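Entry 14. Structure prediction run on the chain below.
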Amino acid sequence: MEDKVKINIVIDRRLWEKFKKKIYGEGGLGSLGKTVEDAIEEEIPELIVIRWLEEILKSRRDVSSEITPIEPRVATDAGRSIRSMRDERIDR
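Output returned:
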C-alpha cells in the first residue's frame, strides 16, 4: 500500500458540496480522494515524473548511475550549425 496521509482542510462549504456532488456523480463513492490527488498532481507535474522514474528504477536492478561520454559518429561544428540557422532566419 502506498504511503498515505489523512488531512483536514478548511474550505467554503458550498464550494465543497458542489465539488462532492460533481465527483460522486461522475465516479461514484470512493473517488473523491483520488480526484483530489489527481488535481494536486496536475499542479505539480514533476511529482508524476519522479514517481514514474522511481517505478522504473525499482524494476531495474542493473541501472548504472555512471554517465559515460561518447564521441559523435559524424564530425560536427556547433558554431557553423548555429550560424547557418541564424542566416536562414535572417534571409526569410
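The radius of gyration is 25 Å.
Filed with the rest of this week's runs.
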